[in-house]
Structure formats: structure tokens, C-alpha cells
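FAQ: What does a ligand-bound record look like?

Like this one, built around zinc ion:
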Amino acid sequence: MTTPSVATDPACLFCRIVAGEIPAAFVHEDDLVVAFPDIAPRAPTHILVIPRQHIVSAAALTDADSSTVGRLFAVAAQVAREAGIADAGYRLVTNVGRAAGQTVDHLHIHLMGGRSMTWPPG
Ligand code: AMP
Ligand code: ZN
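The answer part, i.e. the structure of the complex:
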């Protein structure tokens, strides 16, 4: 068995968004990554940056994903600039597993800004 170059899981919510089966207002799309607003925003700006490929979480990344990971962070920075929150500062978060609060098992970076953030997160 060979692994497909772009894995998708038809049961995965974010794979379905990538495929256009569930609507999302993309603020960025390219060959590796898409970004769209979180449906339940926890900050004035709350955007999800995700790979097109179905990767379960950051814990599943390998060296083979280096281009995708680089693109995820570069796109997050670009979207932050476009959203006007780059100068003030913003937070990038990726939850891994249930104890951390991961509810969608498709890698995503939360880009959150537009307000002050506390540390440590709850
Ligand atoms: P996490 O809890 O870290 O796995 O993050 C999953 C995020 O996906 C949550 O912040 C949800 O609000 C968000 N979410 C769930 N369904 C949708 C959707 N259809 N469109 C946009 N964001 C969604
Ligand atoms: Zn997926």
C-alpha cells in the first residue's frame, strides 16, 4: 500500500471544509494551506489555519511535512498582518489531544488577536 500524497478523511469536518462540502469563508487558500474564521470566535480575530492534508495533530508531524508546517506559520503571519493585528501581537495555538482541548482531529493553528491575552492559558 502506498500513502496518498494528499490524504483526506471523508468523515473529518476540516477535510470537508477543504473539499468545499461544508461552507467556510476562506481568507487564504493555496496549494498546501487554507484559512477561515473560527465558527465560535474566542477573540475579536480568531482564524483557523489548516493544511489541506489530513494530519491528525501536531503530534503526527514528520520531517516529510516540513513544507506544510513552514507554510502554516507563514500564512498565519500573513493573515495576521492582513487582519491588522500584527503590530499589537497575537497568539498562535495548536491543541494536541483531549486534555489540551482538541475537538477536531485535523491539525489547525488558532490565530487569535484583537485583545490582550493572559498567560498561562487556562
Ligand atoms: P480545537 O478545539 O482546538 O480542536 O479547535 C477546533 C475549532 O474548530 C473550535 O474553535 C471550533 O469553534 C472550530 N470549528 C468547529 N466547526 C467549525 C466550522 N464548521 N467552521 C469553522 N470553525 C469550526
Ligand atoms: Zn481532516
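Follow-up question: can I read anything off the structure? Yes, for example: Confidence is low (pLDDT under 50) at residues 1-5.
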